[in-house]
Amino acid sequence: MKRILPPLNALRAFEAAGRLGSFKEAATELHVTHGAVSQHVRLLEVWLGAPLFERHNRRVKLTPAAKSYLDEIGPLFEQLAQATARYGAIETAPRTLSVNAPATFTLRWLVPRLATFRTEHPDVEVRVETSNGPLESLKESYDIVIRGGPDTFYGYSMRPFLSEERLPVCSPALLARVPLRSPGDLRQHTLLHTSSLPRLWPDWLASAQMPALRPAASLTFDHFYLTLQAAIDGIGIAMGPTALVADDLAAGRLVAPFPLPRLLSRSYCTYVPEEKSGDELVALLRSWLEREGRADKKSGP
Length: 301
Fold this sequence. Notes:
three-stranded antiparallel sheet
């Protein structure tokens, strides 16, 4: 009897999009364009004579019938991949993990350490997107979302991995030009601010028993990584988060003239969708982040 099979490329696009809940993520996994995935899904819908997805802006949701269909065909793809690997001793394609993290954290902490993860796990690819928005506003689904915390979000498991405090930092050259022997010497300096964190300097000055201090000048940036770069360039003094300036302090690009007082800050946490919390590779990356966080705590400023 002749087998009646749907277009296999279309079926493959449907399986990936249904499993990941996103045409964009399916396109990344299959190494094709978003448009190609959408076209294949439409082709399969025409072939089946029924819709497969409900479209909601950038997200897609399986129809109940399509969910049942995916539950049946999904395991067949895994069986096919395993059988092919056994038959031809073919290496499986690298698995891609998607991460969403704040921009400054990504630039100053995560990216410098990712080479270590890639060396330890060359078969795992990590795709990082940056966003500072709240977790519930994200339009895409990610394997791991990194945000401050600890907070509780419905449908996510949370684990802290990196603690942080804040203290003044500046370049050694600036300190050589205008020494800082006590917090009162800040009157002779430019204080660097970030518009989204307006309370850092007032709170630190209050902790240092100098709430009324007026600096020589103030300069405000709209992104925190610009504030830190201005400190490295000797423009002024910034309130540096210990986790994000540890490498600069160790390399001598920054110095901390006043080890105390320190402002307590929220920890960095991983938020993982509950349906992905049992994924072996997600757990692998999550554990690696926690290991790196512990190492930072032991060697931190």
